[in-house]
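The authors assume throughout that readers already know how a fold can be written as discrete tokens. What matters is that the chain and its backbone geometry are given together, residue for residue. A single example would do more here than another paragraph of explanation. For illustration, here is how one protein appears when written out as sequence plus structure tokens.
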Amino acid sequence: MGFRVINEPTVRHFQHHQSGLFPGQSPAFAISICGLAEVPAFHDRAVTHLLSIHGHQLDRPPTPRWIDAGHHYTLQFDDVERSSQDRVAPAHEDVEQILQIGRNLVNQSLVLPVHLLIHCQAGISRSTAAALAILMQVYGPGREEDAVRHLFRIRPQARPHQRIVLVTDLLLGCRGQLVAAVAWA
């Protein structure tokens, strides 16, 4: 399994080529992470899919003209660890959705290149945790430190949302190792 980080002036993203795992195929899957204000800078970066994560009380962000509306996924929860009267924390189901989107897109990359852009408000907590969940799915249990290092190569300022990391750890059977890898990063 080979991974490559492509550095561009202000944009870093992840490309995953799995030659050998899928005989006869040349799959390509890429993840980029940014904040809401940075999304327009990706218009010429061959992004094929967009995952928008925003607060529960905010309107859904518009789909950029360069993204097919059917390839724009939206999740609504706040950047908090626990829900309160006016704030909604990410639920177990939200993390399941992130993982399902990741599975679907990695499978789709067997046929066509996929470049997923994930954004939240600042591109630091919720979006980086969502990207880590998908990366962890690709790497698999036992390679938590590799997935976390890879996340920080994509988005050096990452501070993955703790609750999303915890639920990802549970769902993927990492037995606390993903939580520990993030804590030591």
